[in-house]
Write a structure and sequence with these properties.
The mean pLDDT is 96. Strands 2, 4, 5, 6, 9, 10 and 11 form a seven-stranded mixed β-sheet that branches. It is globular and about 40 Å long. With 118 residues, the protein is mainly beta. 0% of the residues lie in helices and 53% in strands.
């Protein structure tokens, strides 16, 4: 059974930090790209960061570049999103996603809520 579990959300003040974790099981973690998406109330889901477990390449959206860092621990089948210098506009439900290289398999886990107070 494929499982993706995002955790680490919570309440943080503007300028603060949080670290999200996405722990995976049920598929070959090393072959997949893992992405972080977020959805704020009334807005569309936004892809903000991703990492390829095959070659380590990373992606950041302009909205988080320079503030967020994505890393992967293949031994633990876990991807982390370190979020620094947080802003109220970072408030959203954060989801992790796993996609295989051919994009045949696309897995989502339940989200974790992040709230940044002003």
């Amino acid at each position: 059974e494929v499982q993706l579990q995002a955790s680490g959300g919570g309440l943080v003040q503007t300028g603060g930090s949080l670290r999200l974790s996405c722990t995976a099981s049920g598929f070959t973690f090393d072959d997949y790209a893992i992405g972080w998406f977020r959805q704020a109330p009334g807005k569309e889901r936004e892809g903000i960061s991703a990492i390829s477990n095959k070659d380590g390449s990373t992606f950041y959206s302009d909205s988080v570049k320079g503030r967020f860092t994505i890393t992967s621990d293949n031994a633990k089948s876990t991807v982390y999103l370190q979020m620094n210098a947080m802003k109220p506009e970072d408030t959203a439900v954060y989801y992790c996603n796993a996609v295989d290289p051919s994009r045949t398999y696309d897995y989502w886990g339940p989200g974790t809520l992040v709230t940044v107070s002003s």
